[in-house]
């Protein structure tokens, strides 16, 4: 299906690997030019060159920490007027809430709530003026079904979800949609880190925890970045203009609820 976004420009955060890269690849496959942001310059440039070669689109790599004011300024200087914005930042560490102080909570809020809000603030009015915009926030299935060891993520990402629920209803009349993508277990470095924390807490090996988690999922496997990217690309498409303020859960059926 032609997504109707060929020639558009997307700012994709956390794009050097994992789910961010999956989104960038899927957008590029439909002819979207990219500005990719990630902290690791070497990995980011390698990803940028591979996408250029594979899809023939313009790709600009910005090595910066998007969770800082300086990093956001660098990204927005390279892409001041994106048609598409995909926000994404690494999740905070796992652990017990009793061990977290104010500094840990503020860091989580800065990365996983306030950074997306700042990026939306910087770009949404231009999108509305131009009559097209797609914003996708990569959050977590923990927003729908909180995970005890991910308390920092549960709190920060839920705050972003509440914010988006309000603003998404104010932008859609101008053909600017804002949605959240909630990944469950995908085969990424983040999943490995979460499993490492769970293994340590349970006194088990990472392989034991990983295999148990795989078997618990109705799909009997973990998701792939390409699958995630395909859903992201649809949300960014010309066909998704009537879909806004939604929390789209991709978890292989792990969430057991009807609603």
TrEMBL record:
Protein name: 3-oxoacyl-[acyl-carrier protein] reductase
CDD domains attached to this UniProt entry: BKR_like_SDR_like
Domain of life where this protein originates: Bacteria
SUPFAM superfamilies in UniProt: NAD(P)-binding Rossmann-fold domains
Alphabetized InterPro entries for the sequence: NAD(P)-bd_dom_sf, SDR, SDR_fam
Family affiliation: Belongs to the short-chain dehydrogenases/reductases (SDR) family.
């Amino acid at each position: 299906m032609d997504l109707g976004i060929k020639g558009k420009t997307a700012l994709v955060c956390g794009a050097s690997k994992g789910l961010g890269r999956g989104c960038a690849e899927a957008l590029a496959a439909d002819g979207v030019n990219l500005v990719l942001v990630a902290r690791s310059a070497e990995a980011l440039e390698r990803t940028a060159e591979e996408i250029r070669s594979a899809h023939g689109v313009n790709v600009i790599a910005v090595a910066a920490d998007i969770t800082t004011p300086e990093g956001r300024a660098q990204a927005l200087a390279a892409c001041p007027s994106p048609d598409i914005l995909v926000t994404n930042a690494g999740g905070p560490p796992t652990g017990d809430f009793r061990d977290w102080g104010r500094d840990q909570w503020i860091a989580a809020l800065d990365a996983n709530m306030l950074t997306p809000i700042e990026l939306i603030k910087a770009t949404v009015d231009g999108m509305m003026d131009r009559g097209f915009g797609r914003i996708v926030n990569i959050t977590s299935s923990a927003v729908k079904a909180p995970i005890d060891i991910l308390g920092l993520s549960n709190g920060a990402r839920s705050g972003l979800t509440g914010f988006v629920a309000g603003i998404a209803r104010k932008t859609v009349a101008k053909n600017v949609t804002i949605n959240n993508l909630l990944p469950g277990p995908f085969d990424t470095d983040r999943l490995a880190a979460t499993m490492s924390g769970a293994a340590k807490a349970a006194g088990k090996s990472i392989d034991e925890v990983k295999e148990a988690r795989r078997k618990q999922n109705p799909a009997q496997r973990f998701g792939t970045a390409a699958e995630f990217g395909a859903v992201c690309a649809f949300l960014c498409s010309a066909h998704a203009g009537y879909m806004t303020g939604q929390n789209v859960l991709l978890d292989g059926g792990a969430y057991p609820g009807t609603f």
